[in-house]
Write a structure and sequence with these properties.
52% of the residues lie in helices and 31% in strands. It is of the alpha+beta class. It folds into 2 domains: 30 residues; 117 residues, no CATH class. It has a 6-stranded antiparallel beta sheet. The longest helix is centred in the first third of the chain and has 29 residues.
Amino acid sequence: MKRFLLVAIAAFGILLLSSSLVIGASVAYSGLITVRVNERESGMRLFIPVPAALVELGSVIVPLVVPADEMEQLQRDLDEWSPLIRAVLLSLEDVSNATLVEVHDGDTFVSVVKRGRSLKVHVDSPDALVDVSIPTPAVRRSVARIIG
């Protein structure tokens, strides 16, 4: 019984270590998407880190779960824009740090900035302060899978 318990603990430890290595390798390859939300009224703060590989996996699954006729319609809708989208996504990784979009609308401010190898989306509104960071290679690979 004691031997079985030691073997079970060792197996669990190996499983835990290997899972950590897989997650670490995933983050090292694809990067990490982070979402920070600071709600003004309630004071709630939320921080969600997600391995970008999960989003990339989602882009692989989308064509499998979306009905074929809807995927075909999406392809037709994007057909004329696909070359431009591809060109923008390919050049995005080579662009130096820059503000891509900045919008002021009353009390709300939104910006999309390229910083390093990430796209940073910042929203400052009366309700909340939101920051999202997405690795550009993950964006490129995910969108390329969906648009074909």
